[in-house]
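Final report, Chapter 2: Outcomes

The project's central promise was a pipeline that accepts a single protein chain and returns its three-dimensional structure in a standardized token representation, suitable for archiving and comparison. That pipeline is now operational. To close this chapter, we reproduce one record exactly as it appears in the project archive, with the input sequence first and the structure output second.
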Amino acid sequence: DIVDDIENTPKDNGGTNTPTALNVTRTEVFNSANGARTNARKVAVLLTDGESYDFNLTVHAAQKLRSEGVIVFTIGVGNINLQELLAVASDPVCTHVYVLDDYAHIDSILYEIQKKTCEAPKVLTPNQPIVQPVDQNSTTITIGTIRPDNNTVLAIRTNCSIANIYVSYTNPRPNAAIYTETYTAADGKPALLTMEGTEQGKPVFVTVVGTRLPNSTAALQNCADFTYSMNFEPKPSVEIVCREKSTYRDCHPQDFIGTPFENLLCNSTLPAVPNPCTTLHLGKGDLVFAHPYLDNYFIKCDLLGQMYVTLCPNNQVFDKNTLSCGFSNQVI
């Protein structure tokens, strides 16, 4: 019936009103009131043998269509405006734009178009979060999205499930073998993706493999729904505190020296360290001193009065009372 309706559609002569076609696709075709399913993939294929009457209106209409989670392929036949096709299509354009000499060649790409449209990822937009049920074995979905501003994260939460997450900025189908970043989310421990591996406004592809909790664990938690969800939300503020022995306190820059977090410190210049290796101290046999600013370091003197700033091993701190390294300083 659908094929018959398409073949029997009357064709009007006139210009190429591409922006209106794109707008009607957005407001009518992908409208839940007209039967569009919320969780289904949304794919549109623009087939044209010319160019629209207004380039800017066409690009604007395509942007609105894509912003509502629609993957757009473009096919140009004959005398077309390639820049317009590139501007309308989804990223990456190298896999969403086709150019043919005439309609006789369309059969050559028909299978490829069918395959790519069926494999097109769902699109996550700020206004359309995704909630995915997890089947008995596992459930895998791939979504495409655009990196938002620096104050927004992509949050992936689970309910009675564990989610293995694979992220790529170039591969539309990331997986356990090919990915740029990987994360894990579990109940009460969401994965918060900052997507800092790419620039704002650039595409991000995420594959989530959801697995149900074991039956014994699910029974203890009275699990009824096995799902995971994806949505954008404001980046949470993070408080970092330091623990010294059993006491929590505010962290100081020196706490991070020699730790994996050292590269997160802002560049700053500490005051000059005065040389404690004076004649008076050498005469008393005092050859080891605490560093005046950094707890992880100490100062050793030689008999000529030269000082050597030394780092305590294994993230230990220097004890001023015993004049030795040993008390671990953990960053929480």
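Archive annotation: The mean pLDDT is 84.
This record, like all others produced under the grant, will remain available to the consortium after the project formally closes.
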